[in-house]
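Work Package 3 (structural annotation) set out to generate three-dimensional models for the target panel prioritized at the project kickoff. During this period the team completed the workflow that converts sequence records into discrete structure tokens, so that structures can be stored uniformly alongside our sequence database. As a representative example, we reproduce one entry of 400 residues exactly as it appears in the project archive.
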Amino acid sequence: MISITTDSLIYIAFLAIGPFLLRNDHKSRKYIFLAMNLLLYLLTIKSGIQLVIVAAWVLTPYFLAGPVSRYRDGRLRPLLIALMTVVFIYLMQYGFISDLFHIPFILGFKILGLSYFLFREIDFIMHYEYLEEEGVRVSLPDYLNYILDMYTLLAGPILRYQEFTEDFYKEQQPLDKEEIFSGINRVVNGFLKVYVLSAFCGYWAGKWFDGLTGHSGALTATAAFCVFALFNGWYIYFNFSGYCDIVIGFGALAGFKIHENFNRPYLARSVVEFWNRHHITLSEWIRDYIYSPLFKCLISSRFGKNLHLMQYISLFVTFAIAGIWHGTDINYLIYGMCQGLGIVLALIIKKFRKEHLTKEQNKFWTTNKVCIFVQRCVTWGYICLTFSFVGYDVVGFLTR
């Protein structure tokens, strides 16, 4: 059940070496980190054309962000980001988009970390002018370290350029015993989550999903699907949060402060609260770069008088896009739409309580232990059921 691949061992080796090579204030630190990032990423490259495409994808924003930001007060920024998004969609090779528009995908490979590349590059482009005004370090080595950062490239947390550079160049202090123990403890906990708890839940999620076709009755099939969904929900949590624990622990030992990405999400009492606790840096990014611009655009339109409706539409569209970002088939789109729907329903319920319940009733709803327990169970169940679309072809199963 526990499986560690060669690629995982190489990655772990790089993380383990990091504290010995990077815990210093020497000028060579950024070049050592750059060499580690480049070497680790080059190990994933399988062909010359893949190398050229990756290099073009990574370097284009660095060389164009300045000219685009300076030209007519940045009016070309949206065009550059739109073009990058189109290229991103093609490089990701979305199956349902190919089927819908009959677009052939001629590349025989996918680019590791492409989704996180895009998020970081958009942040860099959008803030380039501000970075220059504030005197933030902007150099090619720093930019490449930001984009290729081995600690956060695979699954986040999502970085902002200014935060990355400020953290990288802060004065390094010698580690005390408590910090060393804390970092190692975090790493060990992460390994236990990924290679024990996640592996166990993933194994049984797969078993239950594979066995769904053997249930002839609707009731037994539904019950089996719920068991699968619960195992899969825990698999996703342990796998993702465990990975974050590993990189946060190793990063701390190497002198990096990596953002927390989880805050006990399965204790959330609504889908809104869940997304403030789960993949926190993703929630913040889509809030800043998708939801806020979309909401502002909608409320400035002729339909914008109904602020609540515009908010609901913006949230639904934002999470549908976030769903597509997670994966390349129709299951991920439905997953994102379910998250958007859950958030909208939570906000509607909150609005209803505010308008129709008394103070005492609202207090009971928010403080009564039974109510809190029920809210957490309902939220947890909804999240697990909607997370079943992540990693499994649930649409294919339901449409057989």
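The chain has a mean pLDDT of 91.
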